[in-house]
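Title: Prediction job returns without error message
Component: structure pipeline
Severity: low
Priority: P3
Assignee: unassigned

Description:
Job completed but the reporter wants confirmation the result is attached to the right record. Sequence as submitted:
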Amino acid sequence: MAESPVLACGAAPLATAAAAEFLRIAGLHAYYGESHILHGVDLSVRRGEVVTLLGRNGAGRTTTLKAILGLVGRRTGSILINGVETIRMPPHRIAQLGIGYCPEERGIFASLSCEENLMLPPPLVKGGMSVDDIYQLFPNLRERRTSPGTRLSGGEQQMLAVARILRTGATLLLLDEISEGLAPVIVQTLARTIRLLRERGFTIVMVEQNFRFAAPLADRFYVMEHGRIVEAFAAAELPSKREMLHEFLGV
């Protein structure tokens, strides 16, 4: 598999105030019907930062990503995106603030070619990566651009799912278990991609079960359990948090 080159021109660098807060969630509750999933989640993500949500299955991590976009039955609390309150906005309006969501199920259309899948979402904001830029980032997709979605490998489908949101102009990327079930060489390619995107100023929130994948990539970590944030720490604190992580995650 070809190694990803350095990211060429594409999304314009974000504002130089890298420490500015891009996302702030306060007192977030989320529901699916009568099921109360999130119980007062509080977290923040600075511009240009990679933040990982850790936790066991069912802890509320994926629901947190969906709640950011309004893809839950009901939500209360506050979600500020670049200073804009979005708790009462519909999902399409939230996406137009520059939010890209890559779901765990990928959502590749079998009846469309690789390139048709890539072109499907409309641009939401200016500055999205061109198709050529994306093919430089993911050379495998260029090689498979005419292949039907069902003919792509799991790794190629995951690359396509990530590439699709980069073309929309999104600058806050919500990535749900992008390494799950993939061969190590594909996981390494995705890790390189995340590093390159961070260098370009993208802000990334990842949900990951693969701690080995997430640990070297994230600037900060939040640990979730039963729909709540139970721990928060920076990458520099990771060595001192091993015992706690073993307790909550079994790692």
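Comment from assignee: result matches the submitted record. DSSP finds nine helices and ten strands in the chain.
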